[in-house]
Specification:
Strand content: 5-15%
Strand order of the largest sheet: 3-2-1-4-5-7-6
Structural class: alpha/beta
Radius of gyration: 22 Å
Number of strands: 10
Mean pLDDT: 91
Largest sheet: 7 strands, mixed
């Protein structure tokens, strides 16, 4: 059951965050659970589970952990109906606030039909126990701290040692406001897993915002430590103030995961535009010329996933990568472009075919194929 916007009044950005989480979880679970011959195991880890600010104090239906259970259980039931039996889904929730942890336990007591384990304490201090509880299968980790005061080195070690993916909520608004202050230097060092972060921070272009610099350093460190090959991101605005509140970062080693991320982003962006539009209508108390769904489509065509400006950006990025790496496989090329630019594989197929047609790219089409296969070798002309 997807989140309901009515439960998120005043915190609509959390609605968009949970909507994205649900849709990506659903896609990831279907992909994993349908692709394994042996009965697969899907572990969902909520590293900072809460609950914090929720409207439903009874069933916690607007909390991430409850949303994850509803989503994954719906997938399990659907696949069981298609003959995929023996599917196992584990839920591992961690929370350091004693009152919130008590609520989690109350929640799990009412959900005894599910494999739920509660870990009380900071995620960093519970990592070994959580790792043991996710010893096999595919692990999807949702990392949603309220700020940046976390020991990322331990978190990164946890992510590297597990087979899976993660969704990291980068709190852009708070980080942009505080980065560079002497009073947070030590905590930023822990967040970036880099004691010498400040020197690197001030070496970055002066025109970059604080949050862009921090995000750049965080991603660089994640890749340096090998916890992800690709780190695509999506910005979520604070709808009532129309400024970036957070960025969701997917960590994956799979090009398919990047493509799914962009596909989900394309859908969720439209919902986010509709939410902002409806808030504007409500605040103005005046009717608007176009309904929210039409506004969302227009906005998507202007600056959404696969829009003209992003396709042009993807084309430039694609040509640069091929120039630097003649003979690159299309799968590697697609992953590198989609990580940086909000486009999908379908957009890149069209771009590659057009560049081949005008003589800027060279590649041989697979038999009976009209677009490059993932193994197709691409070279500059």
């Amino acid at each position: 059951m997807p989140p309901e916007i009515e439960q998120y009044r005043g915190r609509e950005q959390s609605y968009i965050k949970h909507l994205f989480l649900n849709k990506y979880l659903e896609a990831a679970a279907y992909k994993l659970l349908q692709s394994r011959r042996a009965a697969p195991v899907f572990n969902f880890v909520d590293a900072f589970a809460g609950p914090w600010r929720v409207s439903d104090d009874d069933k916690f239906s607007d909390a991430s952990f409850s949303q994850a259970i509803d989503t994954l259980e719906a997938v399990r039931r659907a696949l069981a109906g298609m003959g995929h039996s023996g599917l196992r889904i584990r839920y591992r929730f961690c929370e350091r606030d004693p009152d919130s942890a008590a609520k989690l336990r109350r929640f799990s007591t009412d959900k005894q039909e599910f494999d739920i384990q509660i870990f009380e304490g900071s995620f960093e201090h519970c990592i070994d126990d959580i790792s043991s509880a996710c010893r096999d299968g595919f692990t999807f980790t949702f990392i949603d701290p309220t700020g940046w005061n976390i020991e990322s080195e331990k978190v990164f070690s946890f992510l590297k040692n597990l087979n899976g993916e993660f969704l990291f909520n980068f709190m852009a608004e708070e980080i942009d406001r505080h980065a560079g202050w002497d009073g947070v230097s030590e905590s930023f060092g822990r967040f970036l897993a880099e004691p010498a972060w400040k020197r690197k921070f001030f070496e970055l272009p002066i025109e970059w915002t604080n949050e862009r610099k921090t995000l750049h350093l965080l991603k660089a460190r994640m890749k340096e430590l090998g916890i992800a090959t690709y780190l695509p991101e999506m910005a979520i605005l604070r709808p009532r103030k129309n400024r970036i509140k957070m960025r969701l970062i997917l960590g994956t080693h799979s090009v398919h995961g990047v493509d799914v991320f962009r596909r989900i982003q394309e859908k969720v962006e439209k919902e986010a535009v509709s939410v902002r539009h409806n808030i504007a209508v409500e605040d103005s108390r005046e009717p608007f010329l176009f309904p929210s769904n039409q506004v969302a489509e227009l906005q998507s065509e202007r600056d959404g996933v696969g829009c003209r400006q992003h396709r042009d950006q993807a084309e430039r990025r694609l040509l640069k990568i091929v120039s630097d790496n003649p003979g690159i496989q299309f799968v590697s090329l697609a992953g590198a472009v989609m990580e940086d630019v909000p486009v999908r594989t379908s957009h890149l197929n069209k771009i590659a075919m057009e560049l081949r047609k005008v003589g800027q790219l060279g590649f041989d089409l697979p038999t009976r194929k009209r677009t490059p296969a993932f193994t197709t070798l691409i070279w500059p002309v």
